[in-house]
UniProtKB/TrEMBL annotation, chains A, B:
Keywords carried by this UniProt record: Oxidoreductase
GO molecular function: NAD(P)H dehydrogenase (quinone) activity
Any Pfam family the entry gives: Flavodoxin_2
Protein family according to the UniProt entry: Belongs to the NAD(P)H dehydrogenase (quinone) family.
Name of the molecule in the record: Flavodoxin family protein
Native source organism of the sequence: Ensifer canadensis
One CC-aspect GO term: cytosol
């Protein structure tokens, strides 16, 4: 298997750095090829702006998605972005690793998404009209590949549980798992989360590392989260609302978009 | 009233730019003072890294929250960050305005949060032990102030409805409203959202602008989202889980953290 690990922590000597090395060593021990995009080390540019699209003249209004479409079509995206496209197309599996900062990814990783997810590559793929709303949510450029998150938190697992004050971790990560990974076609594995990492001791680290190694060993076989495909018949088009006969009409929230009847677990 | 508007769109001549101007004009017409942090215009630095803490020696392991605490305590945060603190303390009301990119804020605004939300300012405030878990979620440095989001989306309102494929907009914005604004003490107003803005015509813009002006006129009187205070008795400490006698035990998701019985609407 070919694995791309996108790493978003500023300190290589951190717990995140140590876990990254654990993951890479285990993947390589299993015979997989691993490439890493180390965003801080590579001084990744986080902000989508006009300088990403040098062919736009100074007096033209900058419309990010229009500029992205034009640059993708004419193959004039910047080299840092096309290098990531090449890696994403090369990899069978994508791993995003980051510390949870303010309940989501650090800015530098959001900037990787904002800039790498070009129009024509990650969105704006496939036909788009009132009866077909593009190849997305289960289809798209990255269909057939797997993706998962490796996340660390300072807070306790209980704080991120079903009734924890932060909100459930699976709901906090839904906009990433569903909105960023499933959207362009990835099968999304359940995330690996290490909680309470600020005060972890050696025994605690050994446990977390072994849990992570196990996830790396089962990367190819772990059942993905059974999100509903947009074009699989579960949604009305063009309103893109879940069919009224699916799930209780009163139900709401992110969990509706997971088809638990089709789940392996 | 004193209003700080943090603006995160790269093009002043955009719909976002026009809506910002509508909001500012209406606020000023009402006699309010307005200051703007225009993140792109100010070339805001998005990435938390070692250069934010020049007093850390090169051979010291960089721990972001520890470094943030030390810099806040010794008043050695960088000038761009302390300037934002001054504005946040000055303002009665904070508005964050941004286009929804990949279901959350653009990287540059996340970078504003990651860097401005220093330890001792936005978190790590108040006592912290096994019976009291800090002044947060309804208490903290910014308690008594109001905050709201102004958000634009390309997608349709139906796509962000209770059963829409993207997930409900209030759930997508929960990590921001609850995790970023309510956390350091803000009373959080319901967001202003303009949908389907890519194809908006003049009449559509006039409608959106009028809706926004109305929200600006009622900024001081709109009831906030009735989130449950962490230290108000609704949560067990230190597990920070919602008390078992509140809400049905089977219920879950972000909506649990809103006390609808106490709501004005």
């Amino acid at each position: 298997m070919k694995v791309l690990l996108v790493f978003a922590h500023p300190e290589p000597r951190s717990l995140n750095g140590a876990l990254r090395d654990v993951a890479i060593r285990e993947l390589e021990a299993q015979g997989h090829e691993v490439r890493v995009s180390d965003l801080y080390a590579e001084k990744w540019k986080s902000e989508v702006d006009r300088s990403d699209f040098p062919s736009i003249s100074a007096d033209t209004q900058f419309k990010p998605s229009r500029a992205s479409k034009a640059a993708f079509t004419t193959d004039t995206l910047t080299q840092d972005v096309t290098a990531e496209h090449e890696k994403l197309l090369w990899a069978d599996t994508l791993i995003l690793q980051f510390p949870l900062w303010w309940y989501t990814m650090p800015a530098i990783l959001k900037g990787w998404v904002d800039r790498v997810y070009a129009y024509g590559f990650a969105y704006g793929v496939g036909e788009h009209n009132d009866t077909y709303w593009g190849d997305r949510f289960g289809e798209g450029t990255l269909k057939g590949k797997r993706a998962m998150l490796i996340v660390t938190t300072g807070g306790w697992q209980e704080h991120y549980s079903a009734r924890g004050v932060n909100g459930p971790i699976e709901d906090l990560l839904f906009p990433i798992n569903h909105g960023i990974l499933y959207y362009p076609g990835y099968d999304v594995l359940p995330p690996f989360v290490a909680y309470r990492v600020d005060r972890i001791d050696q025994a605690g680290f050994a446990d977390v590392a072994e849990r992570l190694r196990e996830r790396m060993r089962t990367l190819a076989t772990t059942p993905p989260i059974p999100y509903r495909q947009q074009n699989g018949g579960d949604y009305l088009i063009p309103s893109l609302q879940l069919r009224p006969d699916l799930v209780n009409p009163g139900d709401r929230g992110f969990a509706l978009h997971v088809n638990r009847q089709g789940a392996a677990e």
